[in-house]
Automatic annotation (TrEMBL):
CDD domains: GST_C_family (cd00299), GST_N_family (cd00570). Pfam families: GST_C, GST_N_2. It catalyses: RX + glutathione = an S-substituted glutathione + a halide anion + H(+). Residues 82-211 form the GST C-terminal domain. This is glutathione transferase.
Amino acid sequence: MIKLISFKNCPFVQRVMGALIMKNIPFEIEYIELSNKPQWFLDIAPNGQVPVLITEDKTVLFESDAIVEYLDDKYAPIEQLSAEQKALERAWSYQASKHYMPQCGTMGSKDQQTFETRLANLAKAFAKAENKLGGSAFFKGDYISNVDIAWLPLLHRAAVIHSCSGFDMLAGFPKVQKWQAALIESGLTDKTVPTDFVQTFSNFYLKNTYLASLMDGTEAVASSNGYASSSCCG
């Protein structure tokens, strides 16, 4: 069986899990501690980052873009696409994945000025999606595609921030908000993160950050390992 090596808050891993789940590929997952990476993991991961996927023939794959493309090549694709359509799909997926870390940096901002500066840059990605989206529930129609899976981590994290702090990172982008709601309603968000995701996520992004200052202080945040740096996944 395929094995996925992860750490609980990694958006890149969530994307890979989304692909595995949508393709109905059986897999097992093992979580490691970001602050204490085991030696066996460092021995097999060329860049020391998650996700790492160990295939059924024990080949170790790394880098989320490469892993997702492998899953498309190895298993039945979600939809049949021409070479041009596949290239466009990958380009729009890349528009999402290259903004995972900028979103993490925005959410982790310690003061309002830094937060607003970073958010303005992040908003450019949402603006591109807003201009591309039509009237359907998902990016390409009424079904979840690889593009939706790629954008899932960005939209899911924005939803958690909105729910916990009241701040909507998608304000001003009604089509993206509708898209976000459809993805969450589909149930895919909950299937692609651990059961304690909101707690571990909040423990890092909603403590000692600008977003934390927007909260009323009544939310209980569990102690756990959080998402720490750009060196953790890719």
